[in-house]
Amino acid sequence: MKRVITYGTFDMLHYGHINLLRRAKELGDYLVVAVSTDEFNKNSKNKYCYFSYEERKKMVEAIRYVDLVIPEENWDQKREDIKKYQIDTFVMGDDWKGKFDFLEDICKVVYLPRTPDISTTKIKSDLNSED
Ligand code: C2G
């Protein structure tokens, strides 16, 4: 059983997120997704989410590629998560390329090309410009 993990905010879920999760799942048999909590977003990522952690968790859990959703509460839990969930492959979009290479001593680190022309920020700005 090959186990994969990825991390994200997944606010205003869109097809870029789905593409990432689909490809992450293709790298193994079991996909763990760590969704950032509201506190982590506010205190460390300086991100305001439209949907709460509980709402974002529910949506990610509903995705067919996802087997388990866990909370991402800080930047430093990845190594512990990889050991706890016996992860073989750590996956992120390539906007994070190189940022997690330090995990290569305990698992495979894969950066996947981002889906172009879609982001939560773009959705918000496009909606604002319609007003
Ligand atoms: N993503 C993508 N294509 C897009 C938008 C996002 O492939 N058009 C990917 C990102 O690269 C990331 C995942 O989808 O791997 C989730 O994106 P975000 O919710 O924006 O995640 P982020 O806020 O970058 O949080 O510790 C890591 C952080 O939690 C990542």
Structure characteristics:
single chain; 131 residues; alpha/beta; 5-stranded parallel beta sheet; 5 helices; 5 strands; globular; binds [cytidine-5'-phosphate] glycerylphosphoric acid ester
Topology:
Blueprint: E1 3-8, H1 15-26, E2 30-36, H2 38-45, H3 53-61, E3 68-72, H4 78-84, E4 89-93, E5 108-112, H5 120-130
Parallel strand pairs: 1-2, 1-4, 2-3, 4-5
The structure holds [cytidine-5'-phosphate] glycerylphosphoric acid ester.
What does this structure look like?
The chain is an alpha/beta fold. Helices cover about 35% and strands about 20% of the residues. It is built from five helices and five strands, in the order E-H-E-H-H-E-H-E-E-H. The protein has helices spanning about 15-25, 40-45, 55-60, 80-85, 120-130, and strands at about 5-10, 30-35, 70, 90-95, 110. The chain has a five-stranded parallel β-sheet with strand order 3-2-1-4-5. Helix 1 (about 15-25) links the parallel strand 1 (about 5-10) and strand 2 (about 30-35). The longest helix is centred in the N-terminal third of the chain and has 12 residues, at about 15-25. The protein is globular. It starts with a strand and ends with a helix. The mean pLDDT is about 95. It binds [cytidine-5'-phosphate] glycerylphosphoric acid ester.
